[in-house]
Design a protein that fits this description.
- The chain is mainly alpha-helical and about 200 residues long.
- It is built from seven helices and no strands.
- The longest helix is centred in the N-terminal third of the chain and has 51 residues.
- About 40% of the residues are buried.
């Protein structure tokens, strides 16, 4: 109970800052969408290729991200951090939308290709967010609260994304998960567009 109160207090403190609220919203959407895709993509891969298909899906989704991860921090430093975060959110949304279109067009290879793009974008979102938060926090306490909020939101997204994906796949199909996740990220990008770092 104490930990729950601490998590809620951190969230409340962080969201008082309008720009932190905007980036945390985008972060929550990215985490939930990423995990929802992970579940739906696994189901899709199993239906297409059985156990081997799931193995290939894991490789396609994680290998590009693993290759770019060592350079992720420096990529975020070459551009304005708030713009870089926005571009990664939009790239993830486009990859999910492409996955949905490819799914309904029965273009299985494109579903796998878009999964690689999504894995890359989601990998770059975290370092971009972590680099941006110190520029948005007005006080050290606000920065601490925003970091705690980031962890809490990640935990919630990691739980809710797969649960929602499981329900949607059971009631419809993986393509619907891809489409809804794309829409969620596109909506999260709207307030993120207004984030500006001064100086």
């Amino acid at each position: 109970m104490l930990r729950l109160r601490q998590a809620l207090a951190a969230l409340t403190a962080a969201v008082r800052n309008r720009d932190i609220r905007r980036v945390e919203l985008a972060w929550g959407a990215a985490i939930a969408a990423g995990w929802a895709h992970f579940v739906a993509f696994g189901v899709f891969a199993y239906e297409e290729g059985g156990v081997s298909g799931v193995g290939i899906a894991g490789l396609v989704r994680l290998l590009p991200a693993a290759l770019v991860a060592p350079f992720a921090a420096s990529l975020g430093d070459r551009f304005p951090r708030e713009r870089f975060l926005l571009v990664m959110i939009l790239l993830a949304s486009a990859a999910l939308a492409g996955s949905a279109v490819a799914f309904y067009a029965n273009l299985e290879l494109l579903v796998f290709a878009f999964a690689a793009v999504l894995g890359l974008a989601v990998t770059l979102i975290r370092p971009a967010l972590q680099a941006l938060l110190p520029s948005l926090a007005r006080t050290p306490e606000e920065l601490i609260a925003s970091n705690a909020a980031t962890s809490t939101i990640e935990s919630l997204g990691t739980l809710l994304g797969p649960v929602l994906a499981g329900l949607l796949v059971a009631g419809a199909d993986a393509g619907l998960v891809f489409a809804i996740s794309a829409g969620a990220l596109a909506l999260a990008a709207i307030p993120l567009w207004r984030v500006r770092v001064e100086g």
